[in-house]
Amino acid sequence: MSAVLDVSKLMTSFPAGKKRVPVLADVTFSLAAGRCLALVGESGSGKSMTALSILRLVPRPGQIDAGSVTLSGRDLLTLPVPEMRSVRGREIAMIFQEPMTSLNPVVSVGEQVVEAIVLHEKVSKQAARERSVELFRRVGIPDPGARVHSFPHQLSGGLKQRVMIAMALALRPRVLLADEPTTALDVTVQAQILELLRELQAESETAILLITHDFGVVNQLADDIAVMYAGRIVESGSRTAILESPSHPYTRGLLAALPGRARAGERLQEIPGRMPAPADVPVGCPFAPRCPEAIADCGAWTARLTKLDKREVACLRREEAGGAS
Amino acid sequence: MTETAGSPDQALLSVRDLRTWFPIRRGLLRRVVGQVRAVDGVDLDIYPGRTLSLVGESGCGKTTVGRSILRLAEPTAGQVLYRGQDLLALPQPELRQRRRKLQMVFQDPMTSLNPRMRVRSILEEGLLAFGIGETASERHERAAEALRRVQLHPDHLKRFPHEFSGGQRQRIGIARALIVEPELLICDEAVSALDVSIQAQVLNLLAELQAELGVAYLFITHDLSVVRHLGGDVAVMYLGRIVETGPTEDVFSAPLHPYTRGLLGSILSADPSAARTKAQVLGDVPSPADPPPGCHFHTRCEKAWAPCQASSPAARQKGRLTVRCHLYDPSIPQSRSCD
Prior knowledge:
By secondary structure, chain A is an alpha/beta fold. Helices cover 34% and strands 24% of the residues of chain A.
């Protein structure tokens, strides 16, 4: 399988006084056509910053310092601004957590899809209108011919997210960036949207980069998982490898802390402390201060991913245990 | 009405036929053109030292139930019996004293803690309001103790809310509620905004505090995994009404109401060997301003038939569960089989 999207040694930082504080360090992964990779982590892990860096939308004064983002052979980080603008939306589409804030409240939802199509493609408005009705049907919006005339406030949260998905898919993008696509939805509606995304992915070659904190969502959609902590990928591998036999102490801790896994009333496993702010990330392994397995050497070890049966993991203890190759 | 000491099998708080309607006003004269029936005939029983989880999707009215119990939202009708005494019939000054026993923890501690007050003042405010602690030094000692109880350091008393992380602020919210020694803590989505590793810390803390202090929890949440973890009892709410209630274990192992079944079937497991979840309940929750007639759930229910549109089902006891569904009404000829 060839990668559609290749992210290599991505470094993004923000200034703090005279220094620059890294928010992403050495983020590397690749995404193949028709596959779904989940970036999982808690708030502050850098998962959304990774998405913004790929799109070159890092808010000022933040900046990308190094690395490359290759989309079908072209490095996006060196692309001229007008070309980058046509990549966004057309080749890399996005869906966000809050469909309400991503839709224009004074334009009908159908017209917003039409706008997206005619902006990027040379088609008549009439043809774009017909396509938007078809897209609405495909994402399961009931009565699509009438719904295209609705305004965002007239639609429920689930329908708005379906509109966002229709808009994202309108230009048949190579990559779909889905940032917490179901977090704001109710559980019954969340199940519907995840099923829709799964169906759509099965029938197209669009690759999905799923960004979420929810391992339940990951398990529904992802083929592969990359776990992030303090701006770094600490473990990556197939969905079953990570969820069945997590290796990094942080991944293990996160899965053990899920309330669904313990028996009712049983004490949940805690991870002491909390994720450090970017300026406070310790030298050595960033997870060492919270890690139950940390030894003195972890504080001086430069975190790097090493191959260890069916996965990559950035942990000194695993490397020592014979994972190095 | 007299106050009784109350035995464990006697409810600490009983909610009876609670209705909280909000008027919809339109036009220049702000005339009332309709009612949002946020809470429409709710019955609940909370027992001393136990947890009742109130679970439902957004707009079902679960938050309004919590606020109505404390009269932060004024109920339209019904009773809220605290140890047999109806809180809805109490005049304001007496109600204020009663609130000492019924405290609340909110979802977002950033917006529920006054940013201009130091933690010490936030905690001592409750003590002053209820006249607890004779001297300033006694109040200070109690505030320090309250922080220790939620595993924060007494040094934190001097700080402001913004100096804390989300998890720590939620601990302060819990300390503020517990410092006046309540018998019931209403937790409204108290762990929903927290990251998984922090959520585990706060859930463990709440379990410890309950074991130590014997405080009862009304845990309002949309998170079914949290409900299952908490144990105790659960009430499932849909569009202003409780559709099913009983011991959490029983409801999760053998749910009766089609909505509960759909809701539980929508839980996303993180177990890779489990089958991927199929959407169980189609469509969206209708607007509470214009709920469907009869059983509110019939528009999304695959088992619905004629009687479901005609009348609202009454509560019926089935084993340890109470369910409101025509499927379990023996007086209605069952054209379809259930179970």
